[in-house]
């Protein structure tokens, strides 16, 4: 088993209590299939290089500098030592600023999750922090320098340990008003809403990450395997053409109204009322009743 390498090592501090910890990526793309770019003619790998946009000449690494465009084609140059001097220095400490209710932060601010693991020397303090947060049902807001930037981190109890999620800054999160600006102000009521509630009720479940497969990765793996084995390459089936449909009718079909499937509450209740009325109006035994049903044909 390959032991993952820590992305960051330092201390977590709450009050005057501190303990050594490390951050490990909770999500990784290392298991995905990766491709190399080749020269079609020779089959050799190609390498990437930077070239001058005007002269076309290659630019060596030590000749590359950062530049900020102030006008069209006009730049100010930032030397590596200038950038290094401006970047906040790291004291390798996750300073907890506050403890907040677990659900207080909108998850649209969530960036990347890390497992927060204690060093062997700080296990007691780490467990104390974890169990204290569990009992109080709170999360912690902390700050530190990660990868040369000051980052805000949300720390929550997670299984036997803690999970630290870096948060997007407010200026990085788009306003929902901008995203939903053109959405009309409609109010859905009556049968449509009841049918939607019924459909949602029949689809209730629980989240299990293992149930969701990466179809792209699976398809690419099968393609590579077919190439290696010299088999015919798989081709995806064309999806059925989408056709616009009447919303109410589509809801009724989805809910099984008028079919053998379960009907929503109001429809089922109406059926019971009709059955009750038919029962009370049923003619007495021996009484003649008119039938409007079509006569049944007999074979022969």
From TrEMBL:
Pfam family, one: Ku
Transmembrane segments: none
Region described as Disordered: 253-300
GO biological process: DNA recombination; double-strand break repair via nonhomologous end joining
Sequence ranges of Basic residues compositional bias: 271-280
Ku domain span: 56-185
Complex formation: Homodimer. Interacts with LigD.
Coiled-coil residue spans: none
SUPFAM superfamilies linked to this entry: SPOC domain-like (SSF100939)
Name assigned to this protein: Non-homologous end joining protein Ku
Family note: Belongs to the prokaryotic Ku family.
PANTHER family referenced in this protein's UniProt entry, alphabetically: NON-HOMOLOGOUS END JOINING PROTEIN KU (PTHR41251)
Domain of life: Bacteria
Source organism: Rhizobium daejeonense
Primary role: With LigD forms a non-homologous end joining (NHEJ) DNA repair enzyme, which repairs dsDNA breaks with reduced fidelity. Binds linear dsDNA with 5'- and 3'- overhangs but not closed circular dsDNA nor ssDNA. Recruits and stimulates the ligase activity of LigD.
InterPro entries (UniProt xref): DNA_bd_Ku70/Ku80, Prok_Ku, SPOC-like_C_dom_sf
GO MF assignments: double-stranded DNA binding
Annotated keywords: DNA damage, DNA recombination, DNA repair, DNA-binding
């Amino acid at each position: 088993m390959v032991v993952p390498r820590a992305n960051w090592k330092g201390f977590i501090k709450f009050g005057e209590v501190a303990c050594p910890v490390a951050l490990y990526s909770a999500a990784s793309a290392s298991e995905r299939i990766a491709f190399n770019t080749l020269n079609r003619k020779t089959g050799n790998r190609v390498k990437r290089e930077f070239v001058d946009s005007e002269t076309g000449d290659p630019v060596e690494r030590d000749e590359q500098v950062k530049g900020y465009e102030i006008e069209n084609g006009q730049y100010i140059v930032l030397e590596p030592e200038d950038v290094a001097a401006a970047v906040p220095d790291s004291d390798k400490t996750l300073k907890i600023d506050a403890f907040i209710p677990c659900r207080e932060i909108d998850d649209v601010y969530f960036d990347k999750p890390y497992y927060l693991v204690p060093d062997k020397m700080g296990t007691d303090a780490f467990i104390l922090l974890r169990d204290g947060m569990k009992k109080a049902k709170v999360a912690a807001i902390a700050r530190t320098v990660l990868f040369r930037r000051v980052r805000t981190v949300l720390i929550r109890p997670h299984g036997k340990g803690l999970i630290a999620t870096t948060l997007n800054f407010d200026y990085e999160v788009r306003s929902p008003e901008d995203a939903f600006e053109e959405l009309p102000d409609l109010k859905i009521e009556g049968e449509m809403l009841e049918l939607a509630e019924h459909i949602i009720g029949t689809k209730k479940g629980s989240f299990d990450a293992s149930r969701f497969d990466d179809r792209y990765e699976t398809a690419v793996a099968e393609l590579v395997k077919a190439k290696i084995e010299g088999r015919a390459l798989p081709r995806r089936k064309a999806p059925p053409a989408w056709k616009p449909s009447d919303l109410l009718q589509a809801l009724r079909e989805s809910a099984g109204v008028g079919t053998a499937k379960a009907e929503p509450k109001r429809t089922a209740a109406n059926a019971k009322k009709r059955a009750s009325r038919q029962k009370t109006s049923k003619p007495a035994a021996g009484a003649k009743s008119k039938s409007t049903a079509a006569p049944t044909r007999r074979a022969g």
